[in-house]
């Protein structure tokens, strides 16, 4: 089975942290369009909290502190750019933590698709992308990170992860390099 493309957290609440998210959105769109054209599986990951749900504990620095009261279902924060919006047949996995597998349906969705390999796009590199690389490697999934279709507001941290941590667990390719394979 071909690898599934994960399109992760391209949501207004996260994209608003970037000076110019246009380039990463554009490159992720190229990867998404290519996966769709090749009839490869596409899975969308997103963060959304129920409006009436219990707050995330403050000990969770990401969602309990930095994003407290944000990323609420139905709010502008969870909106996705039209170019990266899911199509009806594409699974959308909602999660409430940085990790993609914790408390979400990602593992059963991937099993249902027969997927044993992932290609990663998303924001931010130091959040969902890093967490997904580590967790998916522990799940023995074959990984590819599209280095120019992931991004982080902290350029130094992005470069350190893409050049240091990610190659320990994944192939790291540009979108053009990936599509040429």
TrEMBL record:
Q: SUPFAM superfamilies, from UniProt?
A: Isochorismatase-like hydrolases
* InterPro entries, per the entry: Isochorismatase-like_dom, Isochorismatase-like_hydrls, Isochorismatase-like_sf
Domain of life according to the entry: Bacteria
Instruction: Name the species this protein comes from.
Output: Actinomycetospora lemnae
Q: Where is the Isochorismatase-like domain?
A: 3-175
Looking at the Swiss-Prot or TrEMBL record, what is one Pfam family this protein matches?
A: Isochorismatase
Molecular function per GO: hydrolase activity
- Report keywords, A-Z: Hydrolase
Specify whether Ion transport is a keyword of the entry: no
Per its UniProt record, what Gene3D superfamilies does this chain match?
Isochorismatase-like
Q: What is this protein called?
A: Cysteine hydrolase
